[in-house]
Structures are given as structure tokens and as C-alpha cells.
Amino acid sequence: AVVAPARAGRLRTLAAAFAVATFTTSSLGAFFVLYAVDRGMSPATAGLTVALASVVNVAMRVSMGWIADRRRWEAFGEGGLVLLCGSVGYFVLANAKSWWLAVGAVLAYGLGWAWQGLIHLGAVRLIPEAPGYATGVLRTGLAIGSATGPIASGLLIGIAGYRVLWILLGLMAAGAAVAVLLTVRTPVEVP
How far apart are CA 46 and CA 39, in angstroms? Predict the structure, then answer.
């Protein structure tokens, strides 16, 4: 199927934004436990915190998917809003101790990564004549973010420490969310 250039361009822009978002979440997944233990949390509690954040993430994905199936949501827009809410968690982590570590993790991981199902729905709705192409473009962005996030973040931790990392990741997640929200507000021709 031939994909209209405007819709293909929008999809590439969204893939880039979600690559940045995935950079943040893959970095969180790689370094949260080490950070939490460094801040005084026991390894077992840090592991349980990740498990709790994962449960919140799964619950958010399933509930948003259930709602999106029943309502005509703008899936990219809703995903951008969830990502924006999740970005707050990184800023909480920047200075967190004790139970605030769990709050930051649940926000950043539980909400900050709950948008993935919505963006796949959005891709298929944006380019229904070529769903494989649409999800493939998005998955390429996600793969790039997943591969580069932990490496770059590990280097940054070595240079500047965890606090700088969490602030940078929060800014990146918020910036990606704003880019998504601005992109979905731009009119595009409908097939």
C-alpha cells in the first residue's frame, strides 16, 4: 500500500519522540535498583518496588487499552499525556529517599512506560492500509531508544551521577511527550 507522505512523516516524527521516551524507560529499568540501594533501600525492597511499578504499568496498559477499544480516543495524544505524567517520576527520583523512591519509580515506570499499547493502536489507526509498516516504523524508534538508553545513561552516571541522570531523563520524557502532543494537534489528511 502507498502511504501518504504527510502521514508517513508524522509517523516518523512520532517514532523519534517515542525513541526518546524509550531511552528514558530503558535507563530507569537498568539503573533504578542500583540507585535505590545506593540511597539506602535494601536490595529486596528495591526489587519489590520494581515489581510494584511493573504491576502498575501492566494495569495501566490493560485499562487504557480496554477504554481505548470502547471510546474513540486519539491514541497518540493519550499516550503523550500518560508519558507526561510519568515524567514527573524522574524528578521525584532526583532527590528521593525512603518511600519517595517507590513513588518516583511507580510514576516513572508505572505511568512513564504505559503508553506503548496506545501508540501501536495509534499507528494502526493513522495508517490502516499498512499496519505492518506503521508499527514497524514505531518499533524501530523504540528499539533505538532501548539500545542506546542504558549505555548512554551508564556513561552519564560515571561522569555526573544519578541526580543529573534523573533530571535529564525527566526533561527528555517531558520533551518527548510535548512533541507527541504537538504532533497530534497538527492536521493531516485522512485517507
Answer: 10
Per DSSP, the residues of 116-177 read HHHHHHHHHHHSTT-HHHHHHHHHHHHHHHHHHHHHHHHHHHHHH-HHHHHHHHHHHHHHHH
Residues 6+ apart with CB under 8 A from 162: 31, 35, 38
pTM: predicted TM-score of the whole model, two decimal places: 0.92
Q: What is the C-alpha separation between 49 and 51, in angstroms, rounded?
A: 5
Measure the CA–CA gap between 66 and 71, rounded to whole angstroms: 9
Dist CA 9 CA 3 (whole Å):
10
Percentages helix, strand, coil for the chain (3-state, rounded to 5) are: 85, 0, 15
Nearest to 177 by CA among 21, 65, 68, 8: 21
23 Cα distance to chain centroid:
8
Cell numbers for 167, please give them: 533530571
User: Rg of the chain over CA atoms, in angstroms?
Assistant: 17
> pLDDT tens digits, the chain, 191 residues: what are they?
688 888 889 999 999 999 999 999 999 999 999 999 999 999 999 999 999 999 999 999 999 888 887 877 788 888 999 999 999 999 999 999 889 999 999 999 989 889 988 888 888 888 999 999 999 999 999 999 999 999 999 999 999 999 999 999 999 999 999 999 988 765 544 44
